[in-house]
From TrEMBL:
<feature type="domain" description="Putative nitroreductase TM1586">
    <location>
        <begin position="106"/>
        <end position="256"/>
    </location>
</feature>
<dbReference type="GO" id="GO:0016491">
    <property type="term" value="F:oxidoreductase activity"/>
</dbReference>
<keyword id="KW-0560">Oxidoreductase</keyword>
<dbReference type="InterPro" id="IPR000415">
    <property type="entry name" value="Nitroreductase-like"/>
</dbReference>
<protein>
    <submittedName>
        <fullName>Nitroreductase</fullName>
    </submittedName>
</protein>
<dbReference type="InterPro" id="IPR037079">
    <property type="entry name" value="AF2212/PG0164-like_sf"/>
</dbReference>
<dbReference type="InterPro" id="IPR029478">
    <property type="entry name" value="TM1586_NiRdase"/>
</dbReference>
<dbReference type="InterPro" id="IPR015018">
    <property type="entry name" value="DUF1905"/>
</dbReference>
<dbReference type="Pfam" id="PF08922">
    <property type="entry name" value="DUF1905"/>
</dbReference>
<dbReference type="Pfam" id="PF14512">
    <property type="entry name" value="TM1586_NiRdase"/>
</dbReference>
<comment type="similarity">
    <text>Belongs to the nitroreductase family.</text>
</comment>
Length: 272
């Protein structure tokens, strides 16, 4: 993490600050977009750098970022903490090698065969597998590449039983683990796609669980249900964090038939 002071300034149509080092050298990025994250005056940001040639970079502040840091048009001194956003190395030239865990199920087979499991054995899901599920969650598409999702993992039986108190959440009576998929409304900036982002991550986790032989259930979390406030207070969630979905996990103690689900009456080619 690099720490430095800079001046946020407006020049013509653009508002930006200069990076006081050669970001390509410091972050060891030979070509392509350099994506960074960190804080500006203790407020989180996730942006890309713009090259001005000769190892000079600037960070352009969009309207939302300007508003958040209180920029009103005149030069503003800012304290910046910045690091390379490794997970966001999207450009093929910058792809970092990750250890990709394998499972024996083809992706299309997993999509067709997965179904909600609501009865689990008492066998705990291994931490290694949960780690793989979280990685799958982080791989989901998300609006503007802002990756606003956070994941709270709990295998605490008191927590699971408390969640199961709600009649819609009975699945947690036997689940051995819960992932609370949360969204950071500040990172997203405008909160608009937070539900979609968290839901894409949720589905990735469900499919990966199936691939690993772990049963799962997507449990919606309405703001009006008792679990919603309970989760916020139980984990002392910061104001910016919204719990969006729950995922119940465990080893299946029930078998679900695999049914064909394609419904041609709901498919509309070129016209309704
Ligand atoms: C947004 C959403 C909310 C859900 N909420 C609940 C819930 O509160 N309780 C529950 O038992 N299942 C819940 N489910 C699981 C659905 O009931 C389940 O996916 C649906 O019956 C289809 O079955 P399948 O997953 O086996 O295909 C939810 C699923 C989604 C996508």
């Amino acid at each position: 993490m690099k720490s430095f002071s800079a001046i946020l300034k407006k020049s013509g149509r653009f508002t930006f600050f200069e990076i006081p080092f050669d970001a390509s050298k410091v972050f060891d990025i030979k070509k392509g977009t350099i994506r960074v994250f960190g804080t500006i005056n203790n407020l989180e940001f996730r942006e890309k750098l713009t090259s001005r040639g000769n190892g000079k970079y600037i960070l352009m502040a969009n309207k939302m970022l300007q508003k958040r840091v209180g920029f009103v048009g005149s030069d503003l001194e800012i304290d910046v903490e910045m690091d390379l956003d490794k997970v966001a190395l999207h450009n093929s030239g910058n792809r970092i090698s990750l250890d990709v865990p394998k499972c024996k199920i083809d992706i299309l087979q997993a999509i067709r065969e997965r179904s909600t499991i609501r009865q689990f054995t008492d066998r705990k899901v291994e931490k290694k597998k949960i780690q793989i599920l979280l990685e799958s969650g982080f791989c989901a598409p998300n609006a503007k590449g802002k990756r606003p999702c956070h994941f709270i993992v709990s295998d605490d039986s008191a927590f699971l039983h408390k969640i199961a108190d709600d009649s819609n959440h009975k699945t947690f009576k036997t689940a051995t683990c819960c992932i609370v998929v949360c969204g950071d409304k500040n990172v997203e900036g405008i909160n608009k796609f937070l539900i979609e982002d968290c839901s894409a991550a949720t589905q990735n986790i469900l499919l990966s669980a199936y691939g690993l032989g772990v049963g799962s259930a997507w449990i919606g979390l309405l703001k009006t249900c008792s679990a919603y406030e309970y989760i916020i207070s139980c984990f002392s969630l910061p104001e910016k964090i919204i719990p969006v979905n729950l995922i119940a996990l465990g080893y299946p103690d029930e078998e679900k038939p695999i049914l064909p689900r394609y419904d041609s009456s709901k498919v509309h080619w070129n016209h309704w």
